[in-house]
Amino acid sequence: MKDNCLILAIETSCDETSAAVIKNGNEILSNIVSTQIDIHKRFGGVVPEVASRLHVEQITLVIEEAMSKANVEYTDLSAIAVTEGPGLVGALLIGVNAAKAIAFAHDLPLIGVHHIAGHIYANRLIQELHFPLLALVVSGGHTELVYMKEDGEFEVIGETRDDAAGEAYDKVARTLKLPYPGGPHIDRLAQEGSANIPFPRAWLEEGSYDFSFSGLKSAVINYMHNAEQRGVEISPEDVAASFQESVVEVIVTKTIQAAKEYDVKQVLLAGGVAANKGLRASLQKEMSIFSDKELVIPPLSLCTDNAAMIGAAAYVRFKQGKLSSLSLNGNPGLDLENM
C-alpha cells in the first residue's frame, strides 16, 4: 500500500470528533464523525469544557473505527494529519495530542492543518481543483473570501468584521425560539415564507469584500422585540426568509464581484453554512452568467466539520514537504495566510 499516499486525519476543532483515512488526497477510504449536537442543544450552543470532555471519550473509538473501515494498518500509513487550529483550544488539544502520540509511536510524519484550508480542500474530494480559484467559506465562526493562485497558497481578500453568518443565524434563531444549531431551522422556515421585511444589507466601503452581519442580527432582534411590545403577531417564516435573503444577497454579490475581478477559473463553496439551500440556490443562479467559471459545491456530508477534508488539505502539505514537529500545539488563532 505504500505505493499510495495514505493519510490518517483527525479533526476535533469544535463539537465533532472525526477521523478519516484519505488516499492520494482525493479518495475517502473512511470518514467517521461523532457529533455532539444533541448534547450541546440543551445549552443553546457549544460549551467548550463539555466539548473537550466528549472528545476525550470518543477520540480513540473514532480513530479505531476509521482504521477498521478503511481496512488499513498503521504500517500502511504515509502520515498523520490533524487540525492545528483555529477552534476551541481544549478541543484542538485532544486531536493534536492523539495525532502526536500515533506519529511518535509509529514513526510517521505529522502534518498540522488549518481548519479553513480543510473546508476548502473538501471540494477536491469530489472534483479536481483548477487555479486560480476563489473559495467562499461560510461557517459558524468564519465568513471569508479566499483567493488561491495555486495549490496551498491562500490570500484572504474578504472576511467578517464582527458576527460570522453562522453566528448571526444562531442568534436570530434563538430570538425565534428555534433550537440549536439555528441555521438549518431558519433555512427550512425561509423556504415557507416571503422576504417582505426590509432588513438592512451591510455593503461596507465601495470595493470591500469584507462582511458584517452584526447590524442585521440586531435589526432582526429589534423587529421581533418591537412587534412583541406592540402586541403585533409576526410570521416566523417571513422573518426567516427576509433575514436569509439579506445574508445571501450580500454574500453572493461580493463573491460574484470578486470572481470577476480576480478572473478565477473556479468558485468553491465551503463550510457548514454551505449546506444552506438558499445560499446554494442563489450562488448557482448567479454563477450561471459565467461561461468560463465553474461553481463547485460539496455534498452536505463534506460541508460540516469532518476529518476527510483535513486529510485532503494535508496531502498538499505532505507533497510540499510542509511537515510539523512533535512540538505541535493547538493554535486557536492560527493564520491561514501564513500556513
Provide an overview of this structure.
The structure is a single chain. By secondary structure, the protein is an alpha/beta fold. The protein is built from 10 helices and 10 strands. The chain has helices spanning 37-41, 48-70, 89-106, 115-121, 165-175, 182-190, 214-230, 236-261, 277-287, 307-319; strands spanning 6-11, 16-23, 27-35, 79-85, 110-114, 133-138, 143-148, 155-159, 266-270, 294-296. The strands form 2 sheets. A 5-stranded mixed sheet has the order 3-2-1-4-5, with helices on both faces. It has a 5-stranded mixed sheet with strand order 8-7-6-9-10. β4 (79-85), α3 (89-106) and β5 (110-114) form a beta-alpha-beta unit. α4 crosses α10 and α8 runs parallel beside α9. It is globular and about 65 Å long. The chain starts with 5 loop residues before the first strand and ends in a 20-residue tail after the last helix. The model has no long low-confidence stretch (mean pLDDT 96).
Brief summary:
The chain has helices spanning 37-41, 48-70, 89-106, 115-121, 165-175, 182-190, 214-230, 236-261, 277-287, 307-319, and strands spanning 6-11, 16-23, 27-35, 79-85, 110-114, 133-138, 143-148, 155-159, 266-270, 294-296. With 339 residues, it is an alpha/beta fold. The longest helix has 26 residues, at 236-261.
